Amino acid sequence: MPLSQEQFSQLAKDLPGMGNDPHSVRARVEAMEKLLERSFHIPGTKIPFGLDTVVGLVPVLGDVVTAAMGAYIVWEARNLGMSKWQLIRMAANVGVDTATGAVPLAGDVFDFVWRSNSKNLRIIKKHIDKHHPG
Fold first, then answer.
1. For the whole model, what pTM was predicted?
2. What is the pLDDT along the chain (134 residues), one digit of tens a residue?
3. Per-position DSSP letters for the chain, written without gaps between them
4. Whole-angstrom Cα distance, residue 6 to residue 11?
5. Phi, psi values for residue 100, rounded to 5°
């Protein structure tokens, strides 16, 4: 039996992390940041890395994919009503990561060090803590 738009909206609202409220947005962004920046550790160390570093090893396509995933975080921030200045800073973080990550070898090392998604998560958390407490 097909769901109506209202039933689908209610179902999505009831699922954890699927709403448009700041708490749900924060949960999704934190999950995406962890996936991109801190999913794995170098064996024998506590140095984290994520899909941004791994997928970035694939020339061109890897950088496009990780840029799209980083842009998703900026899109979620836009839905929170963040200021244009904050969105520009976040887009610049993703842009620097993408542009520098496209350079063979040096870009892969840069992806390991420059954590644009972690920077963007900090910007979003600061906004949520200030404008949407609780």
1. 0.84
2. 676 778 777 766 666 566 778 888 999 999 999 999 999 999 999 999 999 989 988 888 999 999 999 999 999 999 999 999 999 999 999 999 999 988 888 888 898 899 999 999 999 999 999 988 87
3. -PPPHHHHHHHHHHSTT-SSSHHHHHHHHHHHHHHHHSSEE-TTS--EE-HHHHHTTSTTHHHHHHHHHHHHHHHHHHHTT--HHHHHHHHHHHHHHHHHHTSTTHHHHHHHH--HHHHHHHHHHHHHHHHS--
4. 9
5. -75, -35
